[in-house]
Amino acid sequence: MMKTIGLLVWLCYSTMAFAQPKVDVLRCELLHNPIGIDISNPRLSWQIQTAERNVVQTAYHILVASSPEKLAQHKGDLWDTGQVISDNSILVFYGGKALKSDAEVFWKVKVYTNKGESDWSAPARWQVGLLYYKDWDKRWIGFDRYFDTDDQQSGYLSARYFRKEISLSKKVAKATAYVIGLGLYEFYIDGKKIGDQVLAPGLTDYTQNVKYNTFDVTEQLSGNNHALGVTLGNGRYYAVRQEKPYKVKDFGFPKMQLQIRITYTDGSKQTLYSDNTWKGATDGPIRSNNEYDGEVYDARKELQGWASLGYDDTAWIPAEYVQEPGGKYESQINRNMKVMQDIKPVSITSKDGKYMLDFGQNFSGWVKMRVQGARGTEVTLRFAESLNDDGTLFRDNLRAAKATDTYILKGNDEEVWEPRFTYHGFRYVEVSGYPGEADVDDFMGRFVYDEMETVGEFSSSNPLLNQLHENAWWGIASNYKSIPVDCPQRNERQAWLGDRPTSAYGENFLFDNANFYVKWLEDIRLSQKNDGAIPDVAPAFWRYYSDNMTWPSAYPMIADMLFRHTGDVRVLQDHYPSMKKWMDYMRARYMDDKGIITKDSYGDWCAPPVTIEAGRGKSADKKYPNPVLSTAYYYYLLQLMADFSIHVGNELDRADFLQQAAQIRKDFNLQFYNQNGGYGNNTLTENLLAMYFGLVEENEKVKLADRIVEIIEKENKGHLSTGVVGTQWIMRTLSDMGRSDLAFKLTTNRTYPSWGYMIEHGATTIWELWNGNTAHPQMNSENHVMMLGDLLVWSYENLAGIKSKENGFQTIIMKPELIDGLDHVEASYHSVYGAIKSNWTTSKTTFTWDIAVPANAKAEIYLPAKNSSSITEGNRNLEGNSDIQVLSEEGGRVRVAIGSGSYQFKTKP
After folding, report:
1. Does the structural domain 456-798 have CATH classification 1.20.1300.10?
2. Is the pTM of the predicted complex or chain greater than 0.90?
3. For the Alpha-L-rhamnosidase concanavalin-like domain, which residue ranges apply (predicted)?
4. pLDDT given for residue 247 in this prediction
């Protein structure tokens, strides 16, 4: 479902039903509650649900009030729009009175449509966050030093614990907690954790911005006396030490700032702060916590009741005032990570005193363990994605990551434990030191990723295609870690820009990830250097600024995806200046006198070796820079920027971008076109880019298309030969060429190199390499997303026929590809307007297509038929059907326009 988030796209949405003009449902969500929105002009959105066809909003009326009582009386004392003539039901900017920090805001909406007027929606609310730096007012606390509980030489730091007891003299009407805990935190009141988030807050470059989380703690502060507690883990703040510490940013020791704003029932207010009256300790059970290496927990050191009233903290020391991180304080609008699913082991085996757990699925998170034994017994859990031939863990591909958790028993009673400040990428877990006999019921896998709903579903008559979709889902979810990491298992886990330009596009068909990617675009913007350079990873935890076109292309390409899929123009407005600065930087620094962009760092990264044996034992960490790629990308991005300039109101820039593009197109063909019909070295990737980006001259398209087909069918024997760059464009290029059959062949191959080959060799996610079962383990993740390319985009847009034409799917293009061997495709996608569904089945005699279009949206659909007279909808001919407009009949397709609603078409192709 569409989320109700303010910073990026939407704050709230309501759902209207028209069986009788009334509101059916209204939802407003942000981290379970719409609180802490530190935006002065958030956007409001709503959805209309109705079984009627062709429902179009004609106007809306929004009321925003300072109290639920005023809203119930239809008094919008903060904002009353009156009746606004508009079909816009998403991203309506709040335009009322200035909002104050920590204020509660209540709103509702009614809509007017061509089919009638709705009743007022049920009331919704949001709570304003802390809008200004001075709202925080007090200082940070922590310990900016080592203790004897730390291992400075190895870089291991024990968790920090802070506590404070408070007394409230009045009855609380409202209490809101604002928490910043760096690197990671858990917040407690009276011994109970607040919220179900894990590994919070989201990762940032803390010198640029830090995220705070907001909690309604009114219920928790219902009495007079309470204890507050915060545990701090390291996360990326106290940086993971590596063999190359000079490349890794380190921000210092863990620290925190917290305040609780209280309104009493008599109307008076009070704010509680973290300060040096709090007390802290480091000699607790979490002896070390490290994202790569794991967590060591000594239950004998548990501080029983430390976050509860009455705990004896005389041995604790006063918290110390410490330096702030330096970055801007921002409410975290994208959701935190959460344990999203529990996964039970499918088997447990025992050998040489050790147990081996198999969870049957590669995923990321950790293991929750139940154990009973003698005090001091040490249980060790080691994680891996696969096994060696002898049944032991294969861990060579983890590089320097130890991926090990250790639990030391306190003894006697049954103990249940799971780590707090680490995660692993794994399928298998080796358990050693476990007392007694272990059973599968003693362990549970905890699947952790950013809390977001699955909004897309896809199935077909081809089992392999279905399995690829499932593998993609698991791989994508596994790598959502508040930033889109490349892999969850080895000592890397960085948000590489090169992995995501097209993958993010496909991911959006599966997950409600819009706010996730808006947050990441901000990470990229804040990592940009003053001269315009953009890094290879963002946040720039690694100091990699290699300067190339293909990797940073993720910045404008993801902005484009967000705009097209959500209709959010603000994402373009926010990032247009930075994107333009980067484009100017690359042209000034790397364009030669022949009009070629000479700088490319990686080439077609991880292209497959010619045979599976040719790559056996060899590292894929090799760069093949190629000016064909960098120049082609620059041309493509110039066209994107020209489109963006329209939406940000800069026509002068548009003319400049188009002029640059026209000149580069000429120079590109002059320098790289070969008379035999290809470009550059005549590789598949070079030719795909020239074709898809529109660089090839019109009279040479047939020749280039023939060359692309020749490479695939003859030279590659029906297989691809693309790396991370070429794979982003291969499926859509082939379909645009009229060769969806060849794209389908690539998708359903089971021999090397192919996605099917991965599945044939046990993959339950997507490998980093096409030859992942034979390559050198130095760079050989078994859970990556970069080789998905445009497979998901093609599956939803080309096979299912669900594609946005404008304004976040308000106009939809539905043109499914019919391919021999594929008899059925069923897919759905929950857009910002509501659910879009496409379910088609074809036989030798009939094509049947069930379609659903959400209210206030419309679609152009392409039916496989010679003419409209051979088509029926709901057993009615199209002629005289007022719900359907025939637009054209050409190329074996009848193009018709439909409004919202459900339809069933039948044709005779």
Report:
1. no
2. yes
3. 350-449
4. 84
